[in-house]
Design a protein that fits this description.
single chain, about 70 residues, mainly alpha, 3 helices
Length: about 70
């Protein structure tokens, strides 16, 4: 889990520093990072509104990639 969180942060930071923070891969990575980080820390429950909203955003980003 921590490896995936790290990878998501690296991807998001890479595109953010290039000024490309609005591309689907970067958006997906950011939402994945948020969900993983906050559920790991027990800040959000897996079934919380915030996690479900991020899941929807991740689905939209994936749809744009394919």
């Amino acid at each position: 889990m921590l490896t995936n969180t790290f990878k998501a942060e690296v991807i998001d930071t890479y595109y953010d520093h290039r000024g490309q923070d609005n591309i689907p891969l970067s958006l997906f990575a950011f939402d994945f990072w948020q969900n993983t980080k906050y559920t790991y820390r027990d800040v959000d429950d897996v079934n919380s509104h915030e996690v479900k909203a991020n899941d929807e955003q991740m689905d939209k980003a994936l749809a744009k990639m394919y």
